[in-house]
Structures are given as structure tokens and as C-alpha cells.
From TrEMBL:
InterPro entries: ALAT1/2-like (IPR045088), Aminotransferase_I/II_large (IPR004839), PyrdxlP-dep_Trfase (IPR015424), PyrdxlP-dep_Trfase_major (IPR015421), PyrdxlP-dep_Trfase_small (IPR015422)
One annotated GO molecular function: pyridoxal phosphate binding
Alphabetized CDD domains for the sequence: AAT_like
Aminotransferase class I/classII large domain boundaries: 92-467
Swiss-Prot/TrEMBL keywords: Aminotransferase, Pyridoxal phosphate, Transferase
Quaternary context: Homodimer.
Protein name: Glutamate pyruvate transaminase
Family, similarity comment: Belongs to the class-I pyridoxal-phosphate-dependent aminotransferase family. Alanine aminotransferase subfamily.
Pfam families in the record: Aminotran_1_2
Cofactor: pyridoxal 5'-phosphate
Amino acid sequence: MGSNNLRQLNIDNINPHVREAKYAVPGELAVRSEEYRALLAAGSTKLPFKQVISANIGNPQQLDQKPLTFFRQVLSILENPALLEKSDVLVNQLDYKPDVLERAKRLLAAVGSVGAYSASNGAPAIRQSIADFLERRDGFPADQANIYLSAGASSGVNTLLHVICANDKSGILVPIPQYPLYTASLSVLNAACVPYLLDEHRNWGTSLETIKAAREKAKAEGINVRAIVIINPGNPTGASLPEEDIRAVIEYASQERLVILADEVYQTNVFVGEFISFKRMLRQMQQEQPGKFDQVELASLHSVSKGMVGECGHRGGYFELVGFDPEVQAEIYKFVSIMLCAPVIGQCLVELMVNPPREGEPSYELYTKEYNAIFNGLRERATALHKAFEQMEGVECGAPQGSMYLFPTIKLPPRACEAAAAEGRTPDEFYCMRLLEATGVCVVPGSGFGQKEGTLHFRTTFLAPGTEWVGSIVKFHNDFMNQYR
């Protein structure tokens, strides 16, 4: 008898909902790219490229985005408070500014030790700092009691979906294309994903008609549609929603008693127009029409992983609840308590994100210089990528608006589609695999995010340093089109 037969677990008897979940971002292409990276590190010269560009995932510091100095200096003291005993060395020899030391002392007073558990919903002083930020951002008060620290926004999404989805008939409206966290989480929960298509011809804006049609179809199938997910700015599309789209969603959610899940982790990555939070717009609409929107339930999420912070590995984030029933909120608190608390060092990083150095403080000049350099670098690379796509046959892509991604449409020759089918791949997967093999640039096929039937896309970040790798994509595309024409 083989040793495999002695094991309790096998692929056929584990949780089937985990098996069925799909999560394309770290999929086959990413695995292959890491194999190539290992070969290059071992000195291989057999590959047709000299580096792997991981444009498949929004992981800024993997792609050489430098941490913000103020943040890391404060964190270094939080991890090793004994450094405060050598404050003269920190200031005079290591160029720590006095406000770095003061912030570290304040955070240590708030949490005691980053090695200790906090309150399950996060340290009260940090939640208050977030509430103050939200009031500055939106112009409306926020209550720290409604704020929950989480291990990145993904953990917050997981919490909220667990509470909202009561059974297999619970449905969540999810934008297509979407970040696959939502569809994968709903698969694991054995709940219903109710997809609604974004409008590519309106810069990937929301279409109320499409949302209504998706909900009505689900209702006819016996699905209890309970919430709608909005990702703004968009992932994978990079779209930044205008005010009229946000108002329309809130109006519809109010009419149909839908919880709004506003994923706003890219709120500082906006190149066109301004970011408008769902909280701000909801409060404005409540002022304009008193009483009408008082029962709207809104959960909005933010994270230290994106923006100019890019601290994905520290797993810091939060969500704010607006309009939730107190008894439901108590159950949400219980759920987060099961996991004890979010990483406390991540909580402290959230505080730094929402309360960075201000004008007149010693660290402000360097912080602003670093922050602006990251923002301008992202915009420069986004523009370079977009210009490259404009040159490429059969590729269409809207101008970059926000987040860290572009999501171009690609039209491939019939022979390429036939070659893809022969390999058992979708045409966009086939294209992305050939791109990786030829250039070392790893992107994600549009099928991993969902796309309108009959269309093909891929998602690429623009986080990698420099723009020379963009030229390799253009050359590959021309060669690919000529090969399969």
C-alpha cells in the first residue's frame, strides 16, 4: 500500500469549496515566473531575458519601491524600544528627526508593546487617529467605535463576507472584472457571486442598468442579494469613479436595502480627477434629503499595502461601519475577536499612514519628497505603458486614471486562438504565457478577473522601476501577431 493511501486527507475529501475557489493573481504564470527567477539567480544564460518583471501583483516593495523613511524609522523604535535610550545616536548619527522619536513614544504609550495583543478591534488610540483622518478627508465626523483594524483590507473583506453571507442563497453583487478576492471568498463560503459588468466604454464606470439586471436575474434564481461590492479606484481596471456613479449606487442600495462594501484601498492612487469616498457622498446625500438615506449600511475599507505606502508585508488595514445595526456590529466584533487582533505593528503603520508628518514638522520635507517621487514615478510608468499599448496592433486601453493597473483589451488572430485551444488554455492565458517566456514580464490574463464574453484582456501593474521593460512588451507583441497572423 502506498504511503499516500495512509493519509487522512486527499484532494477528494477536503473542503470542496476551497477546491473550487479560483485565485488567478498567484497562479500558474506567477509560479513559472518564480522558476525563471530562480534560474537567473543560479546564473543561467539560457533564457531570452535577464530579469523577471512581476507585473502580476500589486506588491510595490518587491519591485523596488522604497519604504517611506519616517514610517520605517518609527517602526524600528517600536520593534526595539531600547533605541530610545540612545536618542542622541539616533538623532545625531542616524538622522532620526525629533518627531520620529515623539511618534514612537506616543504609539508605545498607546499599545504598550507591539508584541502584545491589542483590543480585538484595534488599539483605541489608533482607531481615534483613523477617525480624525476620516473627518479631515470627508468633512464629516467619524466615531472610533465604528472602526476595526484588520490584517490588510483582505482580512476586513473576509470578516464582512462571513457575517453577511448567511447561507448558500446569500448573494453579493461583484463587479466584473474584479479583484478575485471576492469571488474566491464567496466560493469558500458557498455563497453566491452575482456578477455585474463594468462599462469599458465609460472608463470602466458602473452601469446601474447592468447592476439592476444582474440583481433581478439572481432574484429570479432564488438568490437573496444582500450587498454590492464597489472597488474604487478600480482593480484591475484602474478606473476612478465620478460622483454621479457613486450617487447612483447609493441611491440604488438605499432602494433595494443593499449593504455597500466600498473597497477604497487605492484612494491615494488617483491620476485623473479626485477620489470621492462613499462615506463622504453618503453623508452629503443624507444632508440633502434628510431621512431618506439614514438606513444605508456602508462598510469602507483601506490598507497600508497600496498608495505610496506599499507596505504589503506588514498587513495593516481597517474598515469603518456606517449605519449598521448595533447587534450586528456586536457580532462583527465577536468575529474579529476569534482571530484575537490584527498585527499590532500593522496597526501602528496604519496610524502613520493616516497621520503622516505635517507641514512645519521636522520629517515633513523628506516625507513629502519621497511621497511625491513615488507618485510621480507611478504616473510616469503608467503613461509610458499606455503609450506603448497605443502603438500595439489590436490593443485598446483607456488612459490611466488611478490605482496601480492597466487592463487593456487585446484582439488576437484566429490562429493564436487555435494554438491556445490546442494547449488547453484560453487565448488570453496563452498570450500571457508566451509573453512571460519571451520577455520575463509576468502579467495576469483577463479571465482571472472575469471579462465580458467575447473579449480578451490582461492586467499589468506599472510598479516595476524604469520603463525599458515596456519596450520588450511592444517587441513581443509585434512578433506574436506576425507569427499567428
